[in-house]
Amino acid sequence: xxxxxxxxxxxxxxxxxxxxxxxxxxxxxxxxxxxxxxxxxxxxxxxxxxxxxxxxxxxxxxxxxxxxxxxxxxxxxxxxxxxxxxxxxxxxxxxxxxxxxxxxxxxxxxxxxxxxxxxxxxxxxxxxxxxxxxxxxxxxxxxxxxxxxxxxxxxxxxxxxxxxxxxxxxxxxxxxxxxxxxxxxxxxxxxxxxxxxxxxxxxxxxxxxxxxxxxxxxxxxxxxxxxxxxxxxxxxxxxxxxxxxxxxxxxxxxxxxxxxxxxxxxxxxxxxxxxxxxxxxxxxxxxxxxxxxxxxxxxxxxxxxxxxxxxxxxxxxxxxxxxxxxxxxxxxxxxxxxxxxxxxxxxxxxxxxxxxxxxxxxxxxxxxxxxxxxxxxxxxxxxxxxxxxxxxxxxxxxxxxxxxxxxxxxxxxxxxxxxxxxxxxxxxxxxxxxxxxxxxxxxxxxxxxxxxxxxxxxxxxxxxxxxxxxxxxxxxxxxxxxxxxxxxxxxxxxxxxxxxxxxxxxxxxxxxxxxxxxxxxxxxxxxxxxxxxxxxxxxxxxxxxxxxxxxxxxxxxxxxxxxxxxxxxxxxxxxxxxxxxxxxxxxxxxxxxxxxxxxxxxxxxxxxxxxxxxxxxxxxxxxxxxxxxxxxxxxxxxxxxxxxxxxxxxxxxxxxxxxxxxxxxxxxxxxxxxxxxxxxxxxxxxxxxxxx
Length: 692
Prior knowledge:
Strand content: 25-35%
CATH topology of the largest domain: Rossmann fold
Mean pLDDT: 87
Shape: globular
Number of domains: 5
Low-confidence stretches: 1-20, 260-275
Number of helices: 16
Helix content: 10-25%
Structural class: alpha/beta
CATH class of the largest domain: Alpha Beta
Strand order of the largest sheet: 12-30-32-33-29-25-28
Distance between the termini: 60 Å
Radius of gyration: 34 Å
Number of strands: 40
């Protein structure tokens, strides 16, 4: 029997076979393309096919998939011949639909009118599987590629990375014996590529696969073997680790020479732009985190008394965000002594060993043990009434609930009867079973919330070491701006950005100093020169676009300024500025109020909240149906404002304009429309973040 792909959960109608994949042999001679080569992929291994453009990589994949018929070709999968032409004898060419070969291209090419689940079900249904079986299998595969939450979304509403995950699940749904991947990560942004690469790393384990790529990160993560093609010939072929360590071909040497060796898994401080010059939202968020997070962690930890934290919370009716910089260790164990988990009778288990309903154990009642008392030892053959949380008398090793005794309530009776034995330890909380003295009661990097403070008090911890509270200098730029509370002059407006972001920064755990400066470089330089000595981060609003009075951009020449593929909030700046002898990170947001706030939520708040312990570090997310249609620029990640109505649907608040501050104030969620989506209809699903 021919080998089958070893996917867990493949269609029950398929015959199972031992894992390990199928051997692939391919020979291609295509004179018009100058190709003459032979390759073999051993069962269950992944071959990375490398080479310059025009070397023949895609021709090999298309020949294996049955989409190209060269002059001479032989393709064998396991013991099944798929192609044999131009070799003498009777020619044979199996059509693509019968090859059990999966192909994942650069572009997902999903059925846009179908849901995600419908796309993945399509292959099994076409093969005759029942709707129920196909749905179960599709959900299993969507789980495997991390896309189960997208099942009900229409394919046309997916981002590039999401669509490629679904395309991978759809390719797997046909239970292919060989999986072909033609630069599957080339059309997605870097964060999505990293995630997808990890998905592929898992999915390809034990699967026979060929991956065409120009990225060394793909080779390191996915490939067991490497073949390098040049001029239609195989010039290098062998185990991936050996060839990467000692490349022989000029192409592979050059590829490795220009690789940074980072496996594309780390943050990108200055992320590369997309083809239209814009950074993706994810790439810019990465760049902000890479620059800002180390600076926020560089301050000196602070020692604070637990009682001070409690007093401030009670006095100000707010629990200030704090995150532990070091483990907090228990001074006393929890529990501090053996105690009762129930209201009942403390007993020696041996005294009840022979108890039965027909011959209950009758024990005299000893002195009661209320909580907060120190009991006398329990004599053998005695039962002592004990309350929940009260110490267990010495000698007792179990508790019987009062409702399981006779009488089933505490009473003046001198004797209590038990109809069944109990194992030692029943309803007993042992000393130190939660945490022993000296043990870690709250680990480092934990935000201090109500439950953490309660545990610290219970464990007798007097003080803790917390991460420093970052001091942020917030600078609003614009000659038209007037600080809050001051009268307006002609053509002036109040500084909404300063108010909004100062509150947002404080809510995220920062200490904030605010400044308002006109569109004059000397004024901005003076504010920076006069910044408080402990400022860890500078945030500016306005002055980052391409106009004539863009003071931040014109003054800070060493800072990166560019566009992010987001609406609102496209113009952004990121870099470092000099504050005296120090250089600190600067994050520059656009000046329109909604743009500034959305930029803060997308790029800065998650980094700041993780550093301070603000909860939640990431906004709560959800997915709901739209109550109305919306249009969105297809090239941008649009962030609209909305609320959840009584039916749990997302209803938009205001339009996409970046000046609509009253509509922002009315919103309870930020609605995310990913790139590649130009329109969503009423009833379509959308993702949202809760912002209050």
